[in-house]
Design goal:
seven-stranded mixed β-sheet, alpha+beta, six-stranded mixed β-sheet, globular, Deoxyribonuclease I, Chain A
């Protein structure tokens, strides 16, 4: 699904109407969110059908020559209905697939006091309906970090603090932006140029948009704001899973000795070939050992259900010794599984400063999803400069490139191999090989 958000700064000129219509068609937009439309409702009704024939929409009327918020969507893909609105936001409930989710289209006031009132109003709605999935889109009229403002004398420190507090209190996440780092420009020259990242997409923490989704700026053309494009891929391409070392393996007493045993397996060939073959062997052996020793740490949380059954039995009668023993073993296994899951998500979230025992796996899981989304390669350029974004082609292009790069030219080990072997030899001696 593709979302387009744009503070258009007035939709009266033919140039701006053409720019929006072209983006909707070229990008195959399914939801379009416009801020500062600056036209009365009846005028917008006539314009909407020309921008996007057959579209469904909701509109917050402009006040004179300012404001005006429009949310448009493809009626074939989804259904929508009004949930709440004010002069600074339009909240639409959208039914997509099997679920409803809440979409805020925001045009925040210029004053700090007005923004604080807006953040409080929206936060109350989110907290009251905290089980719903929320997406907040539009012009927030404030950066979130000092690095997201360049030029100008205005101090946004207090406003940034207000916005950060609102995001934290509402359990929201700011989607990382690709492309131009700023979304608004004063369009002036030299020292008078001011640039700010004040347009954004926020999502609630119970909404995982997938690591292959991305948010990017589009060229600033008909407005002093950049359009923002969110490409939400709810079914990302699934290639073969990579081998990853799990920190929880080190907690097993036999692990180090097993690795040492696997590494000492005799392999014939060049130094680089021996290293690669041993790494492949260890990867295969560790995966098998992990399945038999640790199993699926997520499925084994079903132990919690069995614990609840045992506690009910123990509460209604004098439990026999086998029940007490099973409860003790089950409780120990449950704690062990929960601890391993916590370590698993801590490793992926890269949060190292938290102490053992926090038991906040949901927190670590969400951070891990953020890191995964940041690390996911969405677009690459091949050797001719052509951009490749198709998931199935990204991996093949990378394989082809490195195959050519490291191809054997008929000689002995390449300089790269010699360099790697010399570095590895400091840590690995002939006995280990």
């Amino acid at each position: 699904m593709k979302f387009l958000s744009w503070n258009i700064r007035g939709l009266n000129s033919p140039q701006k109407k053409f720019a929006i219509k072209k983006l909707i068609l070229d990008m195959k937009i399914e939801i379009c969110l416009l801020q500062e439309v600056k036209m009365p409702f009846q005028t917008f009704v006539a314009v909407a059908g020309k921008l996007w024939p057959g579209v469904d929409y909701l509109y917050v009327d402009a006040l004179g020559a300012s404001g005006g918020i429009a949310t448009l969507w493809d009626p074939i893909k989804m259904k929508g209905k009004l949930f709440a609105s004010s002069q600074n936001f339009l909240m639409v409930s959208l039914h997509y697939g099997e679920q409803w989710w809440q979409m805020f289209n925001i045009y925040a006031p210029n004053s700090r006091s007005g923004r604080r009132l807006l953040w409080e109003e929206i936060s109350n709605i989110i907290v009251t309906n905290q089980k719903d999935q929320f997406m907040l889109v539009g012009d927030f009229n404030s950066p979130l970090y000092p690095s997201k403002k360049c030029g100008g004398l205005e101090d946004f420190s207090d406003s940034m603090g207000d916005l950060a507090s609102f995001i934290n209190a509402s359990s929201l996440m700011d989607i990382d932006l690709q492309g131009a780092p700023f979304t608004w420009s004063s369009n002036r020259k030299d020292k008078h140029l001011i640039q700010v990242r004040q347009d954004r997409f926020l999502i609630s923490t119970n909404w995982d948009i997938g690591h292959s989704s991305y948010l990017k700026t589009l060229p600033r053309t008909a407005s002093d704001h950049n359009p923002l494009l969110l490409h939400w891929k709810d079914k990302p391409y699934q290639g073969p899973p990579p081998f990853r070392y799990e920190i929880m393996w080190a907690s097993h007493l036999d692990f180090r000795e097993l690795v040492r045993c696997w590494w000492t397996t005799l392999v014939q060939g060049t130094a680089m070939f021996r290293i690669m073959e041993k790494l492949k062997l260890i990867s295969k052996e560790v995966k098998g050992w992990n399945r038999t020793t640790f199993g699926d740490i997520f499925k084994r949380k079903d132990l919690g259900s069995r614990l609840e059954q045992l506690h009910n039995i123990m509460a209604t009668s004098n439990p026999p010794d086998p029940i007490l023993k099973e409860e003790e073993d089950c409780h120990k296994s449950w704690k062990d599984t929960l601890s391993k899951e916590e370590v698993y998500w801590k490793q992926r979230s890269k949060i190292q400063w938290l102490k053992e025992g926090d038991k906040n796996s949901a927190f670590f899981h969400k951070l891990a999803c953020i890191h995964e989304r940041r690390n996911y390669i969405k677009i690459i350029k091949d050797e001719t400069g052509q951009e490749i974004s198709e998931d199935s082609l990204l991996g093949q292009n990378a394989v082809d490139f490195f195959t050519r790069l490291y191809a054997d030219n008929g000689g002995s080990d390449s300089p790269l191999q010699d360099c790697l072997v010399s570095k590895l030899s400091m840590a690995i001696n002939e006995d280990d090989n």
